[in-house]
């Protein structure tokens, strides 16, 4: 989906014009992928644009940086304010938000410690990541031939920039084979996650969440959905899943900031079917929540103004 240009991007404490938001060709992260990032969404509400779980996302950004031994030269509160400012100055009612912490120009080689640490925040209008059709009727997925990172090879608890080469390889493979999304297995053969989303299934009325130990990022959208599901009265358990558990699921869906809540229609051509009642109930409550229509979850919304 092409980027839609807006006016300003926040870079190291200053708002710069979109076309001037540039880095040097010898920026360390460009060569070695040693950076961390977040994906956040702002939604239009009756009280103006509201950013969903902003402080939680920024906290996770700092946790990712800690894993990578990157010292962010701003506080969490400063970056929360910077995100709000960037959304506000661009006059957007809803948007996707990309904070990025990267190692800049000045050092080269595999030792990243002497490199300067830079921070940017970009925002832009972005619609449904996996398409409106997928949102309504579900997406077709396949098990990737690419394995998810071993947690002792790459720190899967961190949202690191270079780690997503793994996801990109799986995504391209799925798209070229005619599917919408890929599902990666852990080195032990358990279901891990999709290329940029967590995955949950419904079996015999229970919602099954995949353990983080299977290599999945601890998703904030997934965390929100699990809370919503339990509040709706559904049982949520955590279990390792095999690929055949996906084939035989009563319902399945994926969650992520970009994707939001998307039903899974099939896995490896094994049909699960149209979105089921539990998936639809959770999806409906999630969208009502992010649009500021549910008082129960109002603390998840941070308003850009006021």
Give an overview of the whole structure.
By secondary structure, the protein is α+β, with helices and mostly antiparallel strands. The protein is globular and about 55 Å long. The two termini are 32 Å apart. It contains eight helices and 17 strands. It folds into two domains: 8-124, D-amino Acid Aminotransferase, Chain A, domain 1, CATH 3.30.470; 132-290, D-amino Acid Aminotransferase, subunit A, domain 2 (D-amino Acid Aminotransferase, Chain A, domain 2), CATH 3.20.10.
Helicity range of the residues?
25-40%
What's the name of the CATH homologous superfamily of the largest domain?
A: D-amino Acid Aminotransferase, subunit A, domain 2
State Rg. Answer: 19 Å
> What form results from the Cα inertia axes?
globular
Structural class: alpha+beta
Query: Under the CATH scheme, which class of the largest domain?
Result: Alpha Beta
Strand content: 25-35%
Number of strands: 17
According to CATH, the fold-level topology of the largest domain is D-amino Acid Aminotransferase, Chain A, domain 2
Runs in which pLDDT lies below 50 for 5 or more consecutive residues are none
CATH architecture of the largest domain: Alpha-Beta Barrel
- Average the pLDDT over all residues and give the rounded result: 96
Instruction: Give the end-to-end Cα distance, rounded to a whole number of Å.
Output: 32 Å
How many helical stretches?
Answer: 8
The major β-sheet equals: 9 strands, mixed
Order of helices and strands: EEHEEEHHEEHEHEEEEHEHEEEHE
Number of domains: 2
